[in-house]
Structures are given as structure tokens and as C-alpha cells.
Fold this protein.
Amino acid sequence: MKKLLALAMSVAMVFTFAACGSGGSSSGSANSESTPVSEMTTLTVGFDAEYPPYGFKDESTGEYTGFDLELAQEVCNRQGWELKKQPIDWDSKDMELNSGTIDCIWNGMTYTGREKEYTWSDPYVDNSIMVVVAADSDIKKLDDLAGKIVTTQSDSSALTALTEGDAVDLAGTFAKLEQVADYNSAFMNLTSGAVDAIAVDIGVAQFQLKNNPDGFRMLEEPISTEQYAIAFKLGNEELRDTVQETLYEMLEDGSFTEIVNHYTEYNLPEMVCLEK
């Protein structure tokens, strides 16, 4: 019996080590050990698929698109890579990046206050966190949020501003600060009257106001300001540098500006801060 037990344990150990050693990955996909840029054939971009105008599904085509994804596509075109658009749960973005499921987070990712958490590109958008209310709401300014129910996206920069940043005192006046998985849910809750206001990035707010101008209104005063950049796994400077240099090439030859101008109605030209 002891010999059989020992044999069984030996077999189990063999399979355990075999499993641990089978984690190799091909050069054409994201992996936990960063593939040298010279061997890459794809770029897997993690994004929130409900974050217009930066990343969203075009209902007319069923394809994912957006400002950030258009930039990523042009970078891939120039590098000879295939772009893999990988929708992710925003709460799981760090796990996705560190496990190698994605090569970068490129979707309105806030650089400000997170400078040491990732390897970053240069900032390319100046963002503001705004408040959106129903068009007929009696909320006219930030002080009017006292005693109100406010919602925002989980793990978002708006949540950080309200719980750790400059807007903590403001949040202290709310009746309640709620969190939802995505901003589409937040706007549905606002429409139904379940909440009184949404704290949201200005680009997302502009998108929603354009599509429902009679339903929503944005307050003039921002909660906070910040910058967007592309987040790569900490230490992956080679890929960061390659993407960054390509963006500057696009800026110099005008193709970056062409993509920006696709989103003029969302105030992006005024928000872009990338310059050589």
C-alpha cells in the first residue's frame, strides 16, 4: 500500500511539473513574458467596450470602433501587426495586463495619479470629470449635489476623484455614492430616476448628450482634471517606445489629426495634448 501511494504521488508530481512547464506562448499573441517587438505579429488592446467615443460597438456595423481603437489600428498598420480588440471588464484590467491576455490598456486610461503603476506612453488627451444630470433636474451646480444620489463606474478615475482625490469633500455631501459596472448602466439609471447624477469623463458625457440632447444636461464646473495615456505592463518599455514613436510619426504627417477630427463633435480636438 505504501509503495502504491508513493508511486501515485510520483505520477502526480510529474504531471504537476509538466503542467507548470507548458505555459509557453507564441510570438503572435500577448503573454505574461513580453514578446520582443521584432517578433510581434499582433497587438492585443484591452478596452472598455461601453466607453464611447474611445471604445464602443457601432450598432450599424456590429464592429468595435472609437478614437483610441482607430489610433491603435493605424499604429498596427504601420508596424505590420494585426490589431486584436479585446473587450475587458474594467475592474479586471490589471489582471488582464499582468497575465498577458492583453498587451496594453488603450481606452481613456487615466495617467494622473497612477504614474508608477504602469509603463506609460506620453499623455495624449486632457480629460475632465464632469457631472451629468437629467435635462429637467434642479441640479445646476456642484453644490446642488448635496443630499443627492450620485453614480459612477467602478474603478474609474471619477470614482478615484470622489473617494481619494480633490472631490472627497464634495462626495461627503452626497446622500449616496453608487458604483456600476459601465456607464451605459449609469445613464439608464439616470433615465429611470434611480440616481440623481453621474460623475463621468467629459468625452463620454459629450457622446451621451449628442445622442440624447433632450434627456441629459452637463454641469459647467468639472469635478477634477486629468490626462489619458496608454498603459503597458510595468517594465515593457520596448513596446511602449515603439507605439509612442509611431504616434509621433502619425502626428507629424497629419494622420493623427485626421483621426481626431472624426470626433470633433465630442470636443476631442480641444482635449488632445500630444505634441512633439
